[in-house]
Write a structure and sequence with these properties.
mainly alpha, 2 strands
Length: 416
């Protein structure tokens, strides 16, 4: 009896450690990694590692994620990069291993909802702090963290991290609030609607994280698609009208948000309407990075140049005149192309197949809240990977692993 209680206690602690992984994503990688480590420790202490592995292997998302992770490990064998670089980049794909570690812990709908609420509580804390700074009730401040060489600067725009990851996480939390406002009734619906308005205003008008803003609009598209085709067409019509107004009347539109002005300036520069000399701030280098990456994939199309080889391929396979030195050392900020350079078409197909497994389960899930959030999550990640390193970057990678485990934990082998 005592052994059973000890096992059950450690399983519960492992679950709570897993949920705190999501809590600390928005605050930085240090404590996120600590709680990932503690999760693994308590899984081992529970004595149920064999059953944990069986449960993980029975889940198609978990199984294929593990296989994909092994592909990155095997890819080191043909990598043209230095071995140390290959292993260092390989570790950035640990999120694919975290999925099978975490997925058996979310064994019930109650645990799934608890895990979502823990994530929302962390983004809400950052929202409150950001709004206090926004309204002048709290100054931006520094936090000293052990092991960090300099204090952490807490800002209105980025919270405890960069504006990119913070706005991405809050954009997704806003979608959860909107989904819950649709499905719940009474005061709960109104509260979630209020939280959606607060978080969406931050995403669009306070933060300068363009990725989060674009992904927020993608999620609104998904939301209206889930409601009805009529509402989707109305949303598309409004978006088209506002875009047309913005193109034809750029000056007043620029004043709405600095990111809009930056985007319009880049377009105007392209057509010789603005700036005398190009600078990194007014030239959009992403298209050229993508073109360069496609050229590298074309040179080794099937299995790529190996794990961690992006920079080595970049140096050896492109003429000097085509190279861009800013932000291209290890990845093109496009997860598909990054994987394509390393593992070729095989890697891209595997990555897309993992998304396919997740989306297929989202269509089959009987719980409407989890189903709707799952569909939004898959589209969110698929679009996000076009312009961001949503797996390689620490915060985004932890986010993907956590919600992949939470949302698809009920996907069993017999459903596949």
């Amino acid at each position: 009896m005592g052994t059973l209680n000890f096992k059950s206690l450690n399983q519960k602690i492992a679950f709570f450690c897993a949920t705190f992984v999501s809590f600390f994503i928005i605050f930085g990688p240090a404590l996120t990694n600590v709680f990932l480590f503690l999760t693994l420790i308590f899984i081992l202490l529970s004595g149920g590692l064999k059953q944990h592995f069986i449960d993980a292997w029975a889940n198609p998302v978990s199984k294929f994620s593990f296989i994909f992770f092994l592909l990155f490990l095997i890819g080191i064998s043909w990598s043209i990069a230095e071995t140390s670089d290959a292993f260092r980049i390989w570790k950035k794909y640990l999120p694919f291993l975290f999925i099978p570690i975490l997925i058996p812990l979310f064994s019930s709908k109650e645990k799934q909802r608890f895990g979502i609420n823990i994530f929302l509580s962390s983004t809400l804390i950052v929202l409150v702090i950001s709004y206090l700074i926004y309204f002048g009730l709290l100054p931006e401040f520094n936090v000293s963290i052990p092991g960090r060489h300099r204090p952490l600067n807490v800002t209105m725009d980025g919270g405890f991290q960069t504006h990119i990851i913070t706005n991405i996480l809050i954009a997704f939390s806003s979608f959860i609030y909107l989904t819950r406002s649709k499905l719940q009734k009474g005061n709960s619906s109104l509260l979630n609607l209020f939280l959606f308005i607060v978080s969406s205003y931050y995403v669009l008008f306070i933060s300068t994280g363009t990725s989060g803003q674009v992904l927020f609009l993608v999620l609104i598209f998904v939301f209206f698609f889930q409601i009805s085709k009529k509402w989707l067409l109305i949303f598309i019509g409004i978006t088209f009208a506002l875009t047309t107004i913005g193109i034809n009347n750029p000056d007043p539109i620029k004043k709405i948000h600095p990111n809009i002005e930056t985007t319009i300036n880049k377009i105007q520069y392209k057509y010789g309407q603005l700036y005398e000399e190009p600078t990194p701030k007014n030239i959009n280098q992403r298209p050229q990075r993508n073109i360069n990456s496609i050229k590298m994939i074309a040179s080794d199309p099937w299995i790529g140049t190996g794990t961690g080889s992006y920079f080595a391929a970049y140096k050896s396979k492109l003429p000097e005149i085509e190279k861009i030195t800013t932000g291209t050392k290890w990845n093109p900020h496009n997860e598909y192309l990054s994987i394509g350079v390393q593992l070729g078409i095989l890697g891209i197909i595997c990555f897309m197949y993992l998304f396919y497994l997740q989306f297929r389960h989202s269509l089959q899930n009987e719980d409407q809240e989890i189903r709707d959030i799952s569909q939004g999550f898959v589209v969110f990640m698929m679009i996000g990977c076009v312009a961001n390193s949503m797996i390689m970057d620490s915060g985004e990678g932890h986010f993907y692993a956590y919600f992949s485990a939470l949302l698809f934990s009920q996907y069993k082998q017999q459903e596949a």
